[in-house]
Specification:
Elements: H1 4-16, H2 21-31, H3 36-43, H4 47-54, H5 62-72, H6 76-90
Helix pairs in contact: 2-6, 3-4, 5-6
Length: 100
């Protein structure tokens, strides 16, 4: 059986670099065909909030990561991994986060 979450993460990293929540959010929004404003309404944020998250200016909490995943129907594990990886990189570590 193929693990779609692993394949999606691998494809993202291959095409655009290391997984981050900013990247997860942008790919999620684009895959749904939504503008930042429409995506913001779907997940309960303003367009400016979505822009800040997608540009990496705002780091989200694991609670927000799960909320976004649930409201968009995307894998919670992948959203959490991206969120936690951001926190690890921000701490100055090169450790890789794995969520199972």
């Amino acid at each position: 059986m193929v693990n779609l979450d692993t394949n999606l993460k691998s494809q993202i990293e291959k095409e655009v670099g290391p997984l981050s929540f900013a990247l997860f959010m942008r790919v999620a929004r684009n895959s749904l065909g939504l503008t930042q404003e429409a995506f913001g309404r779907k997940v309960g944020f303003t367009r400016a909030n979505i822009c800040d998250i997608e540009k990496g200016r705002y780091a989200v909490s694991p609670i927000v990561a799960v909320k976004v995943a649930r409201k968009t129907g995307l894998p919670e594990e992948l959203a959490l991994q991206a969120c936690l990886q951001d926190l690890v990189f921000k701490a100055g570590s090169e450790a890789k986060v794995v969520v199972k």
